[in-house]
Design goal:
Elements (H helix, E strand, L loop, with lengths): L10 E9 L4 E3 H7 L4 H8 L3 E3 L7 H15 L9 E5 L10 H9 L5 E5 L5 H14 L5 E9 L9 H4 L4 E10 L6 E9 L7 E2 L11 H5 L6 E2 L1 H22 L9 E4 L4 H11 L10 H4 L6 H11 L8 E8 L3 E8 L5
Parallel strand pairs: 4-5, 4-6, 11-12
Antiparallel strand pairs: 1-7, 2-3, 6-7, 8-13, 9-10, 12-13
The protein binds coenzyme A.
The site of coenzyme A (COA) has 22 residues, from helix 2, helix 6, helix 8 and strand 12.
Length: about 350
């Protein structure tokens, strides 16, 4: 079907919902698995607990719970959705995509869709893609999911990674804004592909297919050079946000709320401080969820809305750094339907 060109419009997040599995993995639980302590984890990361799926639950299951609520909150039915983008590093299977599985699970019979691989920036890359599709008139009602079952690729004998990650998902509906002031204003996404070895899962792809040896060598788990990631994340969270602020003639004073990817409390606070954002403008909920990869930003946004810290009309800056490295910052004048 030929695409009918439409006037450029502003896209907005018209609804939001999240889902985390009920089972908890606390720091005390991890003390029994590896040589670590509650004090070390709290002091170095800010994390107290994470949510972990039961066996047999995949990313599409978490995505389904969040998506159905988000669609209902937008006053829509799944058949109204015409595009599904799932940002994830832990698809149910390499193929078919989690977006296809989700399409079937929620009955989004009129949607096409795909998975988007940008690790912890998956939600922001999905949101900016959908917002531009909506702005161009190529989508009317897009569903963007950021979600991961990180427990499926975490080595629970490796104390340097297993304390960090958790499972969870968030979903937003993106539609054209009926108010020109409300919606996605600008974004700055970039990658530095030289950072690949600092955070990766070495095996299971085309480069190193699964063999008995790769499994024995534990190569199907997250491997990370924590300090390299840490330094890159602080510097580039600041850099991406600064570019967006400068381009829009804004300063940190104009920002009502900073919702960063929740990778480490010290990364978030370090970047906020460099940007000149006071703690009261920063959302932190890593203590209860850990790093849910593509899930952290919608989960933090949902909490900000539910606690009254993010209101319609507020100017919110979202930011993320992920494996790749991928970097993203998105500026939104917030305004949901409900
Ligand atoms: N419990 C106790 N000790 C631990 C530990 C744990 N869970 N993990 C590592 N250590 C030890 C190390 O072995 C090291 O011991 P050593 O000094 O005897 O060699 C010591 O603690 C310090 O390790 P280091 O790696 O320097 O700690 P850190 O302050 O850099 O914190 C991270 C480690 C992983 C928490 C931190 O680097 C980080 O958050 N990096 C970014 C990770 C991230 O955000 N990833 C996702 C990005 S999207």
């Amino acid at each position: 079907m030929p695409l009918t060109p439409q006037p450029i419009r502003r896209a907005r997040v018209s609804s939001l919902a999240t889902y985390v599995p009920p089972r908890l993995l606390t720091n005390a639980d991890l003390e029994k698995l590896v040589d670590t302590s509650n004090e070390w984890i709290l002091q170095r990361t800010g994390i107290e607990q994470r949510h972990i799926v039961e066996k047999g639950v995949g990313t599409s299951d978490l995505a389904k719970e969040a998506a159905l609520v988000a669609i209902a909150r937008a006053g829509l039915t799944p058949a109204d959705i015409d595009l599904i983008i799932v940002g994830t590093t832990t698809p149910d299977t390499l193929f078919p995509s989690t977006a296809c599985r989700l399409q079937a699970k929620i009955g989004a019979v009129n949607a096409w869709g795909f998975d988007l691989g940008a690790a912890c920036s998956g939600f922001l890359y999905g949101l900016t893609t959908a917002a531009n599709m909506v702005a161009a008139g190529a989508s009317q009602r897009a569903l963007v999911v950021g979600g991961d079952v990180m427990s499926s690729i975490i080595d629970y004998t490796d104390r340097t990674t297993c304390v960090i990650f958790g499972d969870g998902a968030g979903a937003v509906v993106v539609e054209a804004s009926d108010d020109d002031r409300i919606g996605v204003i600008d974004f700055e996404n970039y990658v530095d592909g030289h950072g690949g070895s600092a955070l990766q899962m070495p095996a299971g792809g085309s480069l190193m297919p699964t063999t008995a040896e790769t499994v024995a060598q534990r190569l199907h788990y997250v491997k990370q050079d924590g300090q390299t990631v840490f330094k890159f994340a602080i510097r580039n969270t600041e850099e991406a946000c600064r570019r967006v602020l400068e381009r829009n003639n804004l300063t940190a004073n104009d920002i009502d709320l900073f919702v960063s990817h929740q990778a480490n409390r010290r990364i978030i606070m370090g970047a906020a401080e460099k940007l000149g954002l006071p703690p009261e403008k920063v959302i932190i909920n890593i203590e209860r969820f850990g790093n849910t990869t593509a899930g952290t930003i919608p989960i933090a946004l949902d909490e900000a809305v539910n606690t009254g810290r993010l209101k319609n009309g507020d100017l919110v800056m979202l930011a993320s750094v992920g494996a790749g490295f991928t970097v993203g910052a998105v500026l939104i004048r917030w305004g949901t339907k409900a």
